[in-house]
Hints:
7 strands; alpha+beta; 5-stranded mixed beta sheet; two-stranded antiparallel ribbon; single chain
Amino acid sequence: MIAVRATNADKASESAYLQFRTMVPGSPGYVELMQLGEAHLLASHKEEKFVTRACEMGFSLPVPIQTFYLNTLGKWHRCINIRALAEHILVKYPHKLLAGHSCADKTSFYHVMEEFWRAFRLYNANHPVFADFANNLRHCIPMKIHIDEGTGLRRAAVNQFSWGPLLSSSPNSLDRYFFWSCMNGEEYKNANAGYERGNAILDEVSERLAAQAQSVYLEGVSCPGIGKLHFVWVALEGDLPAQARALHCKRNFNCMPDQLCPWCHADDLQVPFTDFRPVAAWRRTVGASRPWTTESPMLGIAGAGHEVFLAKDLFHLCHLGAVRGFAVNVLCYLATMAHFEGNNIPDKLSSAYGEFKRFCTSKGATPMVKHFTKDNLGWSSLNSYPQCSFKGSDTRLILGFVLQIMLNPRVALDDIASEALLAASAMDDFLRLIFGLKDNTGCKQALLSRQEGSRALVLLKTWIEKIY
Ligand SMILES: [Zn+2]
């Protein structure tokens, strides 16, 4: 898909041109880049030529870009209509939405859907799908929405909206997330009015998203050979700020010491969130009240009116959250405990990176992080905890690395490191169970067996008891 603005098209043709000039003729992509780069040599109309060429080469989707006017922003905004894209996918690549099955293999697809809803009912029996499509669950596909404020060029914020099936045909994110829209942080940041009140501009965008999502739920989407398929929205994925903003959560991660959990009444006062005992007070408050006081436009989606709709997004909570902090803390702790060569911390971190690099090579992985320094680990002094912004995929590598060091019988561990070893090993096993051996690929399976579920719970319990 090419959805480029004119100036980007100009840049893209230049980039294609520069790349093809460095390639050996005949290597993969050579001809395509040469054709795309042709526009760069024109004196004028570069953008037009580039876009026409890209379309001719089949690099554009035959799905129209929908335009709508945002009153709060006073501008037109664009999205890829959910129904239009879904119908295109169902014609061209149906397996991407049919949990890996083809239209011809209806029986297997129906079986997976019925299995899914049987399991999901145990988790959320109040979802409207069980009333609206009680006798037609085999034509209901569980879907999720993903909203995330990521960083674009020069670290500028970009809010991105996408959607995708819960049961995917492959772990590749291209098969799991389909673009809906995005907006630069510059355009909406002045409308931030706190999580509870939301952001008027993003809310107006959400209103459009909700209307499209609700339409493919109620009216369904046509699938050749199968008929109408209803897209059932069961989760909102994303980081905690994006989730809190989208659903106007008064109770959110930012509220410490007051109630800070969207799913229960835990706080840092009377109902401590650090209490993991079976008798912990917060357990009795799970689902007791909604975390918002004003309704967000997202509630226009059937199923979004309860906080269970907020996914416990493991990638954000683990890879970019608690596990990243933990792995980096252990790394720094090992550096202070003289586990790496060097006469001072910067030297030790540098030799730690050398060891880490060798560890990654042995696993056939390439880390995104290119060195360890006090600066990039966010470790300002020995009295402070390091805090970094490494990529999620690096979290898993660093966790594996510190685990390997601590598992070495020749390495002497003090009490802290011994506890850290138990926590690291429990978390590593947990992530392996949920995500499989490779990472950055999403859940390998949406449903766990009873045995896998209890194992996951034991591992999480060990992790949480050891890190606090
Ligand atoms: Zn809670």
